[in-house]
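ingest -> validate -> predict -> emit
validate: passed (alphabet ok, no gaps, 212 aa)
predict: started
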Amino acid sequence: MRDAEHLLIYHDLVAGIVAAMEARDPYTASHSMRVAELTQRLCRVLPLGTDTAEIIHIAAHFHDIGKIGVEDAVLRKQGPLNESEWQKMRLHPVIGSDILRRVDCFDEIAGIVRSHHERWDGGGYPDGLADAQIPYGARVIAVADSIDAMCSDRSYRKGLSAEQCKKEIACNAGVRYDPQIAAAAVAHWEELLGGFYGASITHSSLSFSFVG
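emit:
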């Protein structure tokens, strides 16, 4: 499972699944692509080996695959979700993990996908894991996922500016996010976001999204 070259065989599978997601919900597919790119950039500034970074990158592509199992009335709702709808949406990490575990060599990736909405303080879902209990890759993706979600425009709200997003990541270090990963993201903010949104990261209100 640590042989990233072996995992590269599955890149066509990634592309096919993203295409299926785009047919179902264009936002989910484009969000996953952006999160994968942000995750790859974040991995470059973390003390990770090449194989581990590639596994996390692939998991980022798949992190929202479970939304395929969320009904359209919830997934494509044009507005905030109510509590009942959120309960259905919160099932997507479990659904995604169950899908991926059907591929033998994706067991580690499935674990990362299941845990990408866990919080450092234990307040996340689906399992209420905390700090080092959360797979490292899931902790990396949580930061990238939040950046894209916070900075994206949705039908019911404008995205934050990059500077506002940076403050939110810093303020939630040790709360929502692994403090060391959050600190690395903040320390390398321009490297992480620069040029990614096609506009100045200092002044733009980015049109990307964080709703993981």
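Residues 26-44 form the longest helix (19 residues).
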